[in-house]
Amino acid sequence: MLYALVGVLALRIAFADDGGKQADRGGALTEIADKPFGSALLWLLGLALVGMAVWRLSEALFGQAGPDGHKARKRLASAARAVFYGVVAYSVLAYVTGDKGSGSGSSDRQSDDVTATALGWPAGQWIVGAVGAGLAVAGVWIAVRAMRRKYHKHLRMNEMSTPVRRTVDTLGVVGGSGRGAVFAVAGVFVLVAAVRHEPGEAKGMDDVLRSFRDTPAGPWLLMAVAVALVAFGLFSWACARWRRV
């Protein structure tokens, strides 16, 4: 749901009809809250994210599905994801219980603050640079794995009809590639912030997406990325249906 909503908000930004909305998690939460039964939907979303955190924690403790799921690197990856989803779940639940600054803060401002703090540490430039490089490499890795359809081993493809399989493949390749591109561009901005020692160069999700609109391709590139994020949101629902667990 979050990826799909961020994609929809990015589509609005592409054609300058954003209404001041942020194309990031905070913007998505605000969008949900403004709708009928918004609070109930946010509660469901927050509890679902708690479920994601607990599921990833179970993978860290007992291993992932598949023959290599008990390897240490797989468990460590699941542990990191459990922490990530736990933090996101907390921010959503804090937002719905009244702390509006928790989940809806600008990702761009948060990115600036975190980068500025890190740059002030001993060897801060190297640390921030390493994070940026790691994020850029992770983005390329995500995109390449999506294009190579590595997600097949995580899904029960044999249970899908041919039309459904083709649809899931399209969503997986397009969505994963777009998501990887966003991560990679975000990593490049963090790397530039480290090289220039300028926290403002690091960008959150909202500014990263807007940067696509500022290229020679104009709003059309941002529109393509936005559609890809919506596709990844839909692909995530397919994963919820056919994931090997």
UniProtKB/TrEMBL annotation:
<feature type="transmembrane region" description="Helical">
    <location>
        <begin position="79"/>
        <end position="98"/>
    </location>
</feature>
<keyword id="KW-0812">Transmembrane</keyword>
<dbReference type="Pfam" id="PF06724">
    <property type="entry name" value="DUF1206"/>
</dbReference>
<feature type="domain" description="DUF1206">
    <location>
        <begin position="78"/>
        <end position="149"/>
    </location>
</feature>
<feature type="domain" description="DUF1206">
    <location>
        <begin position="2"/>
        <end position="62"/>
    </location>
</feature>
<keyword id="KW-1133">Transmembrane helix</keyword>
<feature type="transmembrane region" description="Helical">
    <location>
        <begin position="220"/>
        <end position="240"/>
    </location>
</feature>
<keyword id="KW-0472">Membrane</keyword>
<protein>
    <submittedName>
        <fullName>Membrane protein</fullName>
    </submittedName>
</protein>
<feature type="transmembrane region" description="Helical">
    <location>
        <begin position="168"/>
        <end position="195"/>
    </location>
</feature>
<dbReference type="InterPro" id="IPR009597">
    <property type="entry name" value="DUF1206"/>
</dbReference>
<feature type="transmembrane region" description="Helical">
    <location>
        <begin position="40"/>
        <end position="58"/>
    </location>
</feature>
<feature type="transmembrane region" description="Helical">
    <location>
        <begin position="126"/>
        <end position="147"/>
    </location>
</feature>
<feature type="domain" description="DUF1206">
    <location>
        <begin position="175"/>
        <end position="243"/>
    </location>
</feature>
